[in-house]
Amino acid sequence: MEIFKKMEEHDYEQLVFCQDKNSGLKAIICIHDTTLGPALGGTRMWNYETEEEAIEDAIRLGRGMTYKNAAAGLNLGGGKTVIIGDPLKDKNEEMFRAFGRFIQGLNGRYITAEDVGTTVADMDMIHEETDFVTGISPAFGSSGNPSPVTAYGAYIGMKAAAMEAYGDDSLEGKTVAVQGVGNVAYPLCEYLHKEGAKLIVTDINKEAVQRAVEAFGATAVEPNEIYSVEADIFAPCAMGAIINDETIPQLKVKVVAGSANNQLKEQRHGDELEARGIVYAPDFVINSGGVINVADELYGYNNERAMKRVETIYDSITRIFEIAKRDGIPSYIAADRMAEERIERVRNSRSQFLRNGHGHDILSRR
Ligand SMILES: NC(=O)c1ccc[n+]([C@@H]2O[C@H](COP(=O)([O-])OP(=O)(O)OC[C@H]3O[C@@H](n4cnc5c(N)ncnc54)[C@H](O)[C@@H]3O)[C@@H](O)[C@H]2O)c1
Ligand SMILES: CC(C)C[C@H](N)C(=O)O
C-alpha cells in the first residue's frame, strides 16, 4: 500500500501507528483534518484480517468524522482510531493505558470516544493516562455512553426521512428492517417499538437478535436476508459498505436511514439509490447524535443542552433534502457540500495571523 498516495487522495493530515508489545496494542490513529478544531472521533476495536484493511477503515472513518463534525456545526475536526484485535478476547487494561499515553502524546490534536468494540469501561482506562477522551463514566462529569444518544438522533433523523418519502413523519405502522441490534440499534428499536413501528431484525450475534424478538416482538431473519425483506425503511446499524452492487437491487424499501458509518460502498451507490427513488438519509448526519453529545463535554457537560442540539438532526436532514432538490443532486452530495462549505468558510476566516492563547508566537521562540 502506498500510504502517502492514499493520504494525498483526501488530504489526510496525519496517521499515527501505535505499538506496545507488552500489552499487544496495535492501533492506528487517523487525524484527517483539524481546520475546525481538534480531531474528535471514536476508537473501533475489530479483528481486521490484514493491516491494510485496518488502515483503510481508519482513514475512511476518520474522514467521515471530519464531515460529521462539520455538518453538526461542531468546532471539531475529524479523526478516528482502529485497534487491531478481537474485542471479546484481546482487551486488557495495559492496552488501553498504553493507547491513552499515545493520545496524550498528541497533546490535544486528537480526542477519542467509543465506537464498535469499545465501551465506557475502556474509555475509563484510557482516561487513566490522558484527558483527551470523552464518553467516560458520568461519575467524572462525563456524558457516559454515547450510543443511546446516537440512537435518539437516528430515530429523529429517520422521522425526517419518512417525512420526505411519505409526506408524514409518523413511523406508526411502518415496517423497519434493522441490520445489527447492537449498542445503537437496540435503543433505536425501543423508540420505534414505542411509536408503533413493526420491526424486522438481524444480527450475526444470535443473542442480540433474541433480545429484540423478546422485547419488541421483532421478526428475526438471517443476516443475508435483511436486504430483501418487505419493509418501508432499511436501517443499517452494523458495519459500513452495505449499500453496494449486490444489495441495492434487493431493496424493496423507500427509505434508507440508519446509524452505520460509511454506508455507501462507493459514492456511485448513492447515485443508484437516488435513481431508484429511495430516500437516503446521509449517514454522517443521521448518526451524529453521539458525537454531538460527547462534544458537549468540552463546555462542561449539560444533558439538556446536548439533547436540544441532537434534535436539530431533524432539521439538518430536512435541509439536506431541500438542497438536493434545489440543486438537482443526490442527498449524499448535498450533505458533503454542506460540510465542505463550512470547513472552507472557517479556513478562510482563519487566514489572518492570530497570536495564540498561550502566547507562543514566533517572537517567543527566539
Ligand atoms: N455507538 C455510537 O454512538 C455510534 C455513533 C455513530 C455511528 N455509529 C455506528 O453505528 C454502527 C453500530 O454501532 P454500535 O455502537 O451499535 O456497534 P455494536 O458493535 O454495539 O453493534 C453492531 C452490531 O452489528 C452486528 N453485526 C456486525 N456485522 C454484522 C452483519 N454483517 N450483519 C448483521 N449484524 C452484524 C454486531 O454483531 C453487533 O451486534 C457502527 O457502524 C458505528 O460506527 C455508532
Ligand atoms: C465520538 C463518537 C461518539 C464517535 C462515534 N462512534 C461516531 O462514529 O460518531
From TrEMBL:
Glutamate/phenylalanine/leucine/valine/L-tryptophan dehydrogenase C-terminal domain location: 144-351
Gene3D superfamilies to which the protein is assigned, alphabetical: Leucine Dehydrogenase, chain A, domain 1, NAD(P)-binding Rossmann-like Domain
Keyword match Signal: no
Record-linked InterPro entries: Aminoacid_DH-like_N_sf (IPR046346), Glu/Leu/Phe/Val/Trp_DH (IPR006095), Glu/Leu/Phe/Val/Trp_DH_C (IPR006096), Glu/Leu/Phe/Val/Trp_DH_dimer (IPR006097), Glu/Leu/Phe/Val_DH_AS (IPR033524), Glu/Phe/Leu/Val/Trp_DH_bac/arc (IPR016211), NAD(P)-bd_dom_sf (IPR036291)
Keywords: Branched-chain amino acid catabolism, NAD, Nucleotide-binding, Oxidoreductase
Listed Pfam families: ELFV_dehydrog, ELFV_dehydrog_N
Pathway recorded for this protein: Amino-acid degradation; L-leucine degradation; 4-methyl-2-oxopentanoate from L-leucine (dehydrogenase route): step 1/1
Catalytic residues (positions): 80 (proton donor/acceptor)
Reaction catalysed by this enzyme: L-leucine + NAD(+) + H2O = 4-methyl-2-oxopentanoate + NH4(+) + NADH + H(+)
Record-linked SMART domains: ELFV_dehydrog
Family per record: Belongs to the Glu/Leu/Phe/Val dehydrogenases family.
Stated name of the protein: Leucine dehydrogenase
